[in-house]
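Attaching the record inline, Q. Sequence:
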Amino acid sequence: MSGTDEGRQVCDAAVTLAFSVLGKRWNGMIVSSLGGGPMTFVSLRRAVDGISDTVLSDRLAELADAGLVARTVEAGPPVTVSYALTPAGEGLLPILNQLGQWASANLGERAH
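Structure, as predicted:
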């Protein structure tokens, strides 16, 4: 196997790993929404139109497990829970922006 083939396999594995997290419905929108700063669960639910509470909860747990989102609980009363991007999650913002630009340029009306 040549060096080029090995590089392609490593890249393919890395892309597969990235899409195992980002390829799930809603995850990109959640990360993008958190790009503006920490949000509560209710604020996120409003920002990601159409997502159910159960799915949002599951996706936030997955993104936290992947190291992209941090959950912070502030003692009350009332107890407040907020979600924010970690540095790894913040690193995705320029990529998501580029992906959105690509979709607008290349997917036409399907991107809207």
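The radius of gyration is 17 Å. The mean pLDDT is 89.

More tomorrow.
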